[in-house]
Amino acid sequence: MMNGFWKLTWVETKVFLREPMGVIGTLIIPALIFVIVGRSLGIGGQDVSTAPQPPFNVAILGALLLVVGAVISLVTIISIYREGGILKRLRATPLSPLTILGAHVFIKLVFTVLGLAVLVLAGRQMIPGAIEVNLLAFTASLLLSTISVLSLGFVIASIVPTARFAQPITAALFYPMLALSGLFFPIDRLARPLEILALSLPTTHAVSLMQGVWEGNGWRIDSTAALILIFGVCTALSTRVFRWE
Amino acid sequence: MAVPVISVSHLVKTYGSTTAVDNVSFQVYRGEIFGLIGPNGAGKTTTMECVQGLREANSGTISVMGLDPRRDASTLRKRIGVQHQEAQLQKRIKVWEAVDLWSSLYPRVLDPDELLIGLGLEAKRNAWFMSLSGGQKQRLFIALALIHDPDVVFLDELTTGLDPQARRAIWSLVKGMRERGKTVFLTTHLMEEAEHLCDRVGIIDHGRLVEIGAPAELVERHCPERRVVFTSEEEGVAERLGRLPEVRSIVKNGHTHTLRGEGDGFVTEVIRAIARGGIQVSRFRTEIPTLEDVFLKLTGHRIRD
User: What is the SS3 assignment for A163?
Assistant: First the structure.
């Protein structure tokens, strides 16, 4: 029921905005890290042929923090709702499970885009020349990455035992995924088993997709296909293992 | 002949090796308040949630207004109102937002403002859920259960944890539902609540329905004994009243007399005999068994054991 979807989305958006720490974590922290790390590494405004290059793409790090923040938030919310009986109460209404999850995913996507906007504005203000990218294409690659990573979040949300553990467990799973994502060093330097593991994680393909767009090399078809495949598999899996209470 | 709105037949629900609901059958009739009563873990909530379609039974049949709760779930959810035990809402959702959200889910709804006024929540319409008292939260859940004017309302342990004043306020709201023609199916482990609200109750223990009927009828059937207790300083009172055929036994402790007998006729005859004999009595009271006594008699343990 679309009316229920938009009403639920609007109500959940307002509820989210009333949690100051959640808003700061989503909108401010990634931009802050981008500016602080970017300035300390001396990105932007320099002649790329002579200046020393930063060891990794700081903007992609900022974007990944937006994605991981969205996942941690989604998993935490679903866990709290499950434990508090909110999901069970919603389930007793004509709202379909897909509508409930869809509303939360939609909100996460909107706030991811807003977080990117804050990051871009702050970056342009504080580090001139640091953001020279086709923003539309980069936003699209970020959204595809977010949806794919969120789908893995659905699976985790389904199996996290209690709300208290949701945040630490999700963080413990996703931050190492950042380390293996290929952002800080090429994954072909990893031992073969770790390389295979990295290639099965959405964060790795998110990095290669966004990095390609950032560097003006266009969309990587293999990364796009991998992200869509992971989304399909994880969504199908989560519909099987999702627990309402 | 009364029309059954809910029919449950030979319902069985197991969790692993535990049988939560064991061959339970009952009917709930249109316009009545029916209560499943029993201790925590007796199978009340599981039974209710099977009837709502939230849980799948292992065997047995359930019909709610002619609908199968699992097969016809989406149709049924539009016609039933639900309040879950110890449910919560988003901490920072406002009262009016919750009612507005629920209103958007149904094709036909009551006036939300009138509903909030009727439930005494109009002053709290802008309050966050987390700031409401226990009684206010339950009234909000009642509002959400009633917003679409359902035919059947399910209330699971509605007043658990509330103070006596809030509990009585909720009771009058539930009675109001019956007056508006709703069928109410509730669960409670509070015998006083069941006696006060329910037209009929089903006593459930260890997953089995052990008895069903109107509270007064069950008391009469299983615990017919009445006691009359009074104080009298006159001599020979015990002997005089002990001759009444309705009096089964009489115990005198100082000036306090305790008479035992069965049925309401026993009490009437004792009062008549006291009046006829001009016996001076004080601190006169009758002690009538309650559902708690019926539960003890039928199950061998108290509901809170």
Answer: helix
Residue of chain B minimizing CA distance to A9: B101
The rounded distance, in Å, linking the Cα atoms of B55 and B77 is 14
Q: Which residues 82-101 of A are in CB contact (within 8 Å) with B?
A: 84-86, 88-89, 91-95
Q: Are residues B20 and B149 in the same domain?
A: yes
Q: Which residues of B159-193 are buried (b: 16+ CB within 10 A; e: fewer)?
A: bbebeeebbebbbebbeebbeeebbbbbbbbbbeb
Task: List chain A residues with CB under 8 Å of B144.
Answer: 89
ipTM here = 0.82
Neighbouring-strand partners of residue B282 = B231
Across chain A, mean pLDDT equals: 87
Q: Quote the domain boundaries for residue B275.
A: 224-288
A23-27, B25-29, B205-209: segment of lowest average pLDDT: A23-27
Our count of domains for chain B comes to 2
What pLDDT score does A188 carry? 86
Cβ of B138 under 8 Å from any chain A Cβ?
Answer: no
Q: Do the chains contact at A88 and B84, CB–CB below 8 Å?
A: yes
Q: What is the C-alpha end-to-end distance of chain A, expressed in Å?
A: 23
Domain match, B172 and B236 both:
no
| Helix ranges, A42-96 (H) | 58-83, 86-91
Contact between chains at A92 and B84 (C-beta distance less than 8 A) = yes
Angstrom distances, CA of residue A4 to CA of A123, A197, B104:
38, 40, 6
CATH of the domain at B228: 3.30.70.920
